[in-house]
Amino acid sequence: MEVVLCFTELAGLLLSLTGYVCCLVVLFIPQWLTFSSGILINEYYLLGLWQTCVVQDVGFSVCQEYQTPSHLPVLIQTGRVLVCLSVLIGALGFMVSTPALTCVKCLDSTEGHVKKMLNILGGLLFSLAGTLTFFTVSYFAYDTLIKFWDQNIPKDIPRWEFGNAMYTGWVGGFFLLSGGCVLIFSQFQVTQEAELKWL
Predict the structure, then answer these.
(1) What's the whole-model pTM score?
(2) Which of 3, 5, 106, 141 could form a disulfide with 99 if both were Cys (CB 3.0 to 4.6 A apart)?
(3) Cβ–Cβ contacts within 10 Å for residue 15, how many?
(4) Who contacts 91 (Cβ-Cβ below 8 Å, separation ≥6)?
(5) Are the C-beta atoms of 121 and 95 separated by less than 8 Å?
């Protein structure tokens, strides 16, 4: 039973780690939204949480960081806060759940319910981090779609479109949620098996 529990916990941790790396990538790359003016075919613009970039097909790009955070749109400020919070909560999830894994002998002398509660707490933190990332990207997508289909803007005017960071964010949020759920489920499965053993 411990072998199965060990592999299940490691699977949950690996899923969470994959999602966490995706969230870190999303936090720093300037590819949340893309924009092509249509005037210069080989040139397009990228918008991220920290900077904007102009990219040409030849590989040349120029990026500029936002100078005045107080004048940024609410969408970008909210995105910054939520994704940074997601990364911090994810890191806290690793700090809580890693020492409590069945394969790790760090808390071997403590009672089993302490490990169980730490793993459940870690799973909840991963799930919360995934939810924050998923919500942030979905909010960006919703705002972009509303502006894209705005009837007051002429059809000939180019609009912002989804960038690679948004798809990576959805994947990262999904993996964090999945990893957290697997970690929580593994602990409840152990409780059920222990109860059946005593019967």
Answers:
(1) 0.84
(2) 106
(3) 22
(4) 20
(5) no
